[in-house]
Design goal:
Layout: E1 8-13, H1 28-42, E2 47-52, H2 60-65, H3 70-94, E3 99-103, E4 112-113, H4 116-124, E5 128-132, H5 142-152, E6 157-162, E7 167-168, E8 180-181, E9 183-185, H6 186-192, H7 199-207, E10 212-216, H8 222-227, E11 234-237
Parallel strand pairs: 1-2, 1-6, 2-5, 3-4, 3-5, 6-10, 9-11
Antiparallel strand pairs: 7-8, 10-11
């Protein structure tokens, strides 16, 4: 079997990824499928970090639109990501995959505080590291947290898991004639305002030349295909 193209990766999961077909919360069957996909790449010797969102439980931006203070809403959203991280940890451990949840907001009874060298050591020992609570700061999204943690962990790529099979010129659900990009540059993403990751995250990846692979998580085996360098989804890079 050929060797994986990437040896250390950061997987960015939205909170919505855990919902499945539900309108809210966590679908245990979906968490189990994601855990199985992660187990596949762990078996290949790939070191895997995960950053998870909280939009299936609470969105700070949506709360602000209804009059809540933005910082308060963002902190509530960070706590929602911890709930999701614990659910994913449970699913991974049911697959006998050693996992550590690491949070940017200290809560030692349920997770480890973020210490960069310790998190790197977990990866080196073959443990999946799930980063929760974003950056620990309001006004920053979990996309930005993913870019930041990827740099700190010296990941080789960000794998952005979505419910579509790549990056399109417009939302393919509402625009069937939208163009799919197999490859696109950071500047094109920013110039066209494409909703890949937020502008801060894209700029951080561009400044540090970190590629982003956007793929459909709902297709079983796609995570492994991305790791092996198969042409799935869309790639964002400098060229």
């Amino acid at each position: 079997m050929p060797a994986p193209v990437y040896r250390r990766v950061l997987l960015k999961l939205s909170g919505e990824a855990l919902m499945g077909e539900q309108s809210y919360g966590i679908d245990p069957a979906v968490a189990t499928q994601i855990a199985a996909d992660i187990g596949e790449i762990q078996a290949l010797g790939v070191e895997t970090a995960v950053v998870i969102g909280g939009g299936n439980i609470f969105r700070g931006v949506a709360a602000r639109a209804r009059g809540m203070d933005r910082a308060t809403g963002d902190y509530m959203g960070m706590l929602a990501t911890v709930i999701n991280a614990l659910a994913l940890q449970d699913a991974l451990e049911h697959q006998n995959i050693l996992t550590r949840v690491v949070t940017a907001i200290e809560m030692r009874e349920v997770a480890e505080p973020f210490i960069r060298r310790r998190a790197i050591r977990h990866l080196e020992k073959g443990r999946v590291v799930v980063f929760a609570a974003g950056t620990g700061n309001p006004y920053f999204t979990t996309d930005t947290a993913a870019a930041l943690r990827a740099m700190e962990m010296k990941a080789e790529v960000i794998l952005k898991a979505t419910k579509v099979d790549g990056i399109y010129s417009a939302d393919p659900v509402f625009h069937p004639d939208a163009t799919k990009y197999d490859h696109i540059s950071y500047l094109q993403v920013l110039d066209q305002g494409l909703k890949v990751m937020d502008a801060t995250a894209i700029s951080l990846c561009m400044d540090n030349d970190l590629p982003i692979v956007v793929f459909n998580l709902r297709t079983p085996g796609n995570l492994k295909r991305a790791i092996m360098g198969e042409p799935i989804g869309s790639t964002v890079s400098a060229e």
